[in-house]
Amino acid sequence: MSPQARSELFYLPRADVARALSHIDPVAVATDVLKAHARGETDVPDEGYLGWTTPQGHSARSLNMPGLIRGLEPVAGTKIINASLGNTARGVPRADGLTFLFDPETAHPYAMMDAALISATRTAAVSAVAVGLRTRPAHRLAFLGCGAQADAHFGLLLPRLAGLTELTVYDRDPAGADAFLARHRTTAEAAGVRLTVAGAAEDAVRGSDVVVPLTTVTEGYIRSDWLLPTATVVHVSLDDLVAEVVLGAAQVVVDDWQLVRTDPRRLLGRMYREGLLYGQDEPAPPGPAKQVDGTLGELLLKQEPLDESGLTVVNPFGMSVQDVALAHRVFTAATELGLGSRLPR
Ligand SMILES: NC(=O)c1ccc[n+]([C@@H]2O[C@H](COP(=O)([O-])OP(=O)(O)OC[C@H]3O[C@@H](n4cnc5c(N)ncnc54)[C@H](O)[C@@H]3O)[C@@H](O)[C@H]2O)c1
Q1: Domain 124-318 carries which CATH code?
Q2: What's the CA gap between 231 and 125, in Å, rounded?
Q3: What are 104-159's pLDDT values in tens digits?
Q4: Which of 147, 150, 255, 313 is least crowded, fewest Cβ atoms below 10 Å from its Cβ?
Q5: What is the CATH number of domain 3-118+321-344?
Q6: Which atom of ligand 1 is nearest to the CA of 95?
Q7: Measured from the CB, is residue 251 less than 6 Å from ligand 1?
Q8: Alpha-carbon gap, residue 44 to 87, rounded angstroms
Q9: Which residues make beta-bridge pairs with 332?
Q10: Is 217 touching ligand 1 by the criterion CB < 6 Å?
Q11: Could you tell me where the DSSP H helices lie in the chain?
C-alpha cells in the first residue's frame, strides 16, 4: 500500500486476526525475526511499563512495546498490551490490547488489530523454536498454567516434539485445568499424546523433559530437585523458577539480553541486579554468578542445538519485533483475504 492510500486506518478484530493467522506459519516468522535480531537488523527499545492498582484493588499494567525490522522493506509498529489480575474472576480475559503498524516512510499508523492472539501466537512460536533446538526426544511435556498462552503453546509445540507421549498440565485453578483438558483432549489423543491434569505443580514438573511455565506468578516455586537433569525449561512467564535453577543450569539462553537485564521485576533482571547473572560480554561479578550463554537467534544463525549436557533455561522475554512482524504478515494475509474494515481518519 502506498503512503498516499493510508488516509484510512485498517482495523482487524480478533476473529479476522484468527482467520488470517491460519494462513501463516508463525514459527517460520519467529525464526526469521530471531535471526534478523541476531544480525543486528532490528530496533527493540525497552518496553514502556505503566503499573497501577485498580479501584477494586487489583494489580493492573499497560505495556507499550515498539519495534522496527530494518531492511529493504522495513516493518515498524508497536504492541500495547494491558492486563488486570482481577479480570479472570470478572469473566473477561486477563490481557487485552492492540497492535499498530506504522508506515515506514510517513510514520503514520496505517493498521490496528487485536493484539492478544498475535501476542500468544508469537510467544508460542518462539517457544516452538526453542524446543526445536533440542536434539533429544521429549517424551513428557508439562504446562504450568492453562490460560491463553497454554492454548497457543498446545497448538504449536505438540507438532514439534517428536516422540511426545504425555502432556501434563497444572493450574492453581482446577476448573481452568479441566477446561483445558476438555478443549484439547481429542486433539492430543489423535496425536498419540496422553493429556493429564496434575494435582500439584511439582507432579507436573517431575519427569518432564520440557517444562513450560505459563502462569501469572511473581515469585519462584520450581526448584532444581523437581527437574530432570537434562530438562529444557522454556520460562515464558519469567518468574516461576527459583534463582538456584538458573544458577545451576548448564545453559541459559534469552531472546534479548538488554530487555531481560533492564527489567527490574522478573527473575533474571533481579538476578542481574543482585550480581547473580551477567551477559555475554560483561565482566563476571564477584561471587557465584551465571553467565548468559547466548540468544536463540545466535544459536539459529550458528545452526547449533541447545546444550543438553545439563539443564537448559530458555528465558524469552518477548520482543516487540515478533508482534510487529507477525502483525505485518497478518495484515498482508487479511488484505488478500478481504478481511477487516477501513476506518476514516
Ligand atoms: N515471555 C513472553 O514473551 C510472554 C508473552 C506473553 C505472555 N507472557 C506471560 O505468560 C503468562 C501467561 O499468560 P496468559 O495470557 O496465558 O495468562 P492467562 O491469565 O490467560 O492464564 C494464566 C493461567 O495461569 C494460572 N496460574 C496463575 N498462577 C498459577 C500458579 N501459581 N500455578 C499454576 N497456575 C497458575 C491461572 O489460573 C491461569 O489459568 C503471563 O505471565 C504473561 O505475562 C509472556
Answers
A1: 3.40.50.720
A2: 19
A3: 999 999 999 999 999 999 999 999 999 999 999 999 999 999 999 999 999 999 99
A4: 147
A5: 3.30.1780.10
A6: 15
A7: no
A8: 29
A9: none
A10: yes
A11: 14-21, 26-38, 87-90, 116-132, 148-157, 174-190, 201-205, 243-247, 257-262, 267-273, 296-302, 320-337
